[in-house]
């Protein structure tokens, strides 16, 4: 991880060092003496005569004049000019009410993520960023002043200071420069795996039966070859009886699943599954100076496998949901999770998968986690999920085709009523401008505000790969996750199991009908040893929750 000293090279002060917050210091848990960032005073007060002369502007100013801590997004854009006297903000406690950052390609969505992530970190809130394009690693380094940055800061009344933030670099399956993020097949669960394998609903249900069978028999599904071995056994002559006993799983469907697994593995996907499995508690850390750690998951190396990485992101979120305690509404979130390329998650999703996503988003906010979906248009997100996203930053949309125009009209309908002609406004926004509405401190939607956004203070671009490599080698997580481990599991058990009972059967004078392979496995000393070693989690059925993911035993 890049620590505070490294991140603030060039003498840039950290917000924690600048001053105490208006409501007192917001130090991270376990950080002795860490101070919180300053909450900027809101100049949009009722006494402001410039604001008061326009009742619409005055209403917008009042809507964003929060009493507590808030993130500064930018300032009102009115009649083509910036209004620094009317800041547009998000209350910090409302970040766990989720959000949407949307807009056409090239309109500034990535910079908006970076801007929000910086301020969350400064307030002591850990952040998870999915870096699909490879340019969010710059959050770890101070930004570079230039005419564009200076001009933007001047327009919005921003006191811009080049600042880097504590960051941890991760890479899915170790494909890339970051610390490897892996999941076991058991933990990943049948619903998410079905999504990755592109199985239909019947095949998805059948895969669930295979997981249930492996769970109850204590056959550990650590990596792809374990699952392939179990399915291969069930479709073999030795496993026919077991396949029949499972019920609801046909030989043909099991064969389809086996072929899908084989093809999936042949595409090089085995690296993403295995041990050591990533512990999502490592996303919840703060730096010694009290700032939240920004975990940047590098996805550029696997961007040609969008279905895989979007589903893996959902696994991370589901794992957090399983493990975090209920905290209700708090003064600030415990983690904010940015889910980039969100439309990939919902495309061709089964009903069960969509229901699990909806339930996760609805319930995880009470565990202190805010989720921001990042995509091109709100129509990419199912209505049941969209209705739970209280904070909206909508960048420009294009309307070149009838389909584009339909999406534009649908987007407009998702906003509260306002004095704007939103169809015209959304197609005319420039880069770094957006239409914003968030939840106020009372939970009511704020007025719709055309906004010119502030400039990020960290580097707007990637950190050189050599610097990332150095940071990764120096990370406290490197020793835990860098080296893959292939311990004995279902694949090895099913290969070795027949030898012991067959030898015993051959020595018997009165030979009976050979037991099935599964009977041999269950009756063997090896299996009993396995059941003892894995205890309650695998000796009995694994507890599964949303998406069929397995609960982690800490």
From TrEMBL:
Signal peptide: none
Membrane recorded as keyword: no
Biased composition (Low complexity): 10-35
Record's keyword annotation contains Nucleotide-binding: yes
GO molecular function: helicase activity
Keywords: ATP-binding, Helicase, Hydrolase, Nucleotide-binding
Domain Helicase HerA-like C-terminal: 84-554
Superkingdom of the source species: Bacteria
Region described as Disordered: 1-35, 494-516
One Pfam family hit: HerA_C
Name this protein carries in UniProt: Helicase HerA-like domain-containing protein
Organism name: Streptomyces sp. R39
